[in-house]
Amino acid sequence: MKRKYQIIGLIILIICSIVYDFQKPSVKDKQEKVYSYVILEGEFLKNGKYEYEGEKYVSDLVKEVGVSKQANLKALSLDMLVEDESRLYLPAQNEKAISLNQASKEMLMSLKGVGEKTAQKIIDYRKVQPFLKIEDIMKVSGIGEKTYLRLREFLCL
Q1: Could you list the residue ranges that cross the membrane (predicted)?
Q2: pLDDT at site 32
Q3: N or C: which end of the chain has fewer CB within 10 A?
């Protein structure tokens, strides 16, 4: 009698196992697309949060989103990969825009709020690491987000 119940239990276990295998979601169903995002500001035709899938270069993003006729594309490094959860600012063309990678100390000092010491810090920074995007100016000691927001329309790469 005990043997009979063991066989019935085994049969029920096999049936449950087969039913579970049919209902179990496949690994392919569980894989979801992973999206990254970047915040676009300035002369992009679409400002705000922009979601993308996989790796994307700034040049591809510019083609997809579009830019206004006044956009200063010299302010962006187009061959750079877009960083997830970053912020890209594209200023308008400005004849007085100063190049972070090429400006002299005097030119940098002509910016409102940039003195001799800060201008020298910018020059010292770019000797070690060239600026790849305007936002990199915040990596210079003494320049925070407020200063960056005030200066960004007068800067280019």
Answers
A1: 6-23
A2: 66
A3: N
